[in-house]
């Protein structure tokens, strides 16, 4: 049990990352739709922009993985996995 307590900061970061991600991803389309087409029930532009945002996020993740792997050799794997997740929590938590 003591070994798991030593990883509590990592468990907390992963929990907050997943919580922020699951809270924001479904709301992105609604926020975009209310910004682009206020008062309408349908807005195809908002759906296309949300899809484009998710594609750009995926491409950015694909491009950053080798960089994170390179820096993890020098700074440590745990730090390089925790740092981007921590940076993702704050803007995602403030969006909704």
TrEMBL record:
Cellular component GO terms, alphabetical: membrane
Compartments, as annotated in UniProt: Membrane
InterPro entries attached to this UniProt entry: MFS_trans_sf
Membrane topology per record: Multi-pass membrane protein
Keywords attached to this entry: Membrane, Transmembrane, Transmembrane helix, Transport
Domain of life: Eukaryota
Family: Belongs to the major facilitator superfamily. Phosphate:H(+) symporter (TC 2.A.1.9) family.
Name of the protein in its database record: Hippocampus abundant transcript 1
């Amino acid at each position: 049990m003591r070994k798991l307590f030593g990883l509590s900061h990592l468990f907390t970061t992963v929990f907050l990352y997943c919580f922020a991600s699951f809270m924001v991803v479904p709301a992105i389309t609604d926020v975009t739709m209310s910004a682009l087409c206020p008062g309408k029930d349908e807005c195809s532009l908002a759906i296309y922009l949300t899809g484009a945002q998710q594609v750009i996020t995926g491409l950015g993740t694909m491009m950053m993985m080798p960089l994170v792997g390179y820096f993890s050799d020098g700074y440590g794997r745990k730090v390089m996995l925790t740092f981007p997740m921590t940076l993702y929590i704050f803007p995602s938590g403030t969006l909704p």
